[in-house]
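User: Some background: our group keeps a shared notebook of sequences we're curious about, and every so often someone picks one and asks for a predicted structure to add to the entry. Today it's my turn. The entry only has the sequence so far, pasted here. Could you supply the structure so I can complete it?
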Amino acid sequence: MGVATAYVTKVIKESFSWLIVVWLLATALVCGCWAQPAQSSPQSNRAAETLYLQLRSVGLEKSRVYKARDISFDRGAFHITLDDGTIAFTEDVMGRVTGAFFEGDGEVLVVPPDQVERASMALFTGAAILEERFVTAYFRFNDDTFTRLQPALIPAEDPQEFVSQRNETARNLAQTDALRLLLSFSRLLRTSNVVEPIPEPENPDRMLHVRAQGRKLGMFDLYYDSGAAEQVWAGQLKSVGGVN
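Assistant: Of course. Here's the predicted structure to add to the notebook entry:
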């Protein structure tokens, strides 16, 4: 039997990053994705540290800035369309492109599969589905998203200006998913501290995080993680009594 996809709505709080750390460590110990401390070496520790620091600070690459028009892709239960805008992809991290920043006109559609999950979605959006137009979005992924989208993209006319205006934002947003990406890539590290391109695994896990600025909802997040019990979910930072 295949793994059932779960769709839930959550409110993200400031403690979320610490929950991610705990979840990653627990998952790594259970599935054996990370080596046990007794098996590690100074060289492998340095290589993992180098990879993590690159993943959490990666910026945009000026040679990867494109015009995006009428481009769509899917992950789990959500469908994303980039109607018209500019998208810049990140610099390489060990031979991989792991993110992108989009500005323009886009739309996301999430349709939960049953009544319970539609009711949960209604708590977030006020409707049984999430259908929201957005003006900016930061994407983080661990798969071949860039390779799949690139044939439909057209090089932008002034890539340097776009990167200079959005690069700091992209670097700050990169921190959020660095540990999750480290979980994907660390088992493929060489034993030396030399940074080398990462080969494609035979059965890669797939992860996509979207942080978007919606026209009605404001800032919100979408997650797809093929290795999680709840593979697809949406969330939003909320202020309660002036505290996030």
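Suggested note for the entry: The CA atoms of residues 238 and 244 lie 6 Å apart. Residues 1-38 have pLDDT under 50 and may be disordered.
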